[in-house]
Design a protein that fits this description.
Structural class: alpha+beta
Order of helices and strands: EHHHHEEEE
Radius of gyration: 14 Å
CATH class: Alpha Beta
Oligomer: single chain
Number of domains: 1
Largest sheet: 5 strands, antiparallel
């Protein structure tokens, strides 16, 4: 995967930060709108809320996510984020470029401050 250009990186970061802002307000319907069309097809807002509360509750505390590596192949991008908190986590966000801009197609935890992958 080639490195992202500055414009793509900024747009991906803006998408993730927008979703994070919605999480901080507990606005799951708005947060879901930052997801890709294909992701939204398979998960309702209530299911999305349950998933976030169960697997990614640490995102609900409005952490200031910082970004590291960013890679892109055509309309697919991946960006690594560091999520602070009691147990800092490293995440990889997968994004796809749609007609409306970059959308989150998935995210996974790749490590914690202890260095153990979740």
């Amino acid at each position: 995967m080639a490195a992202c250009d500055d414009e793509a990186r900024a747009a991906m970061e803006k998408t993730i930060k927008g979703q994070q802002d919605a999480f901080a307000r507990r606005d799951f319907a708005q947060a879901r709108e930052f997801a890709s069309e294909s992701f939204r097809t398979f998960i309702t807002t209530d299911e999305f809320r349950a998933l976030i509360e169960r697997e990614y509750a640490f995102l609900l505390t409005d952490p200031a996510v910082t970004f590291d590596r960013c890679g892109q192949v055509e309309d697919i991008g991946e960006i690594q984020g560091q999520v602070p908190g009691a147990t800092p986590r490293t995440m990889i966000y997968r994004l796809v470029k749609e007609s409306t801009g970059w959308a989150i197609d998935g995210a996974r935890i790749t490590g914690t401050s202890s260095g153990i992958a979740a």
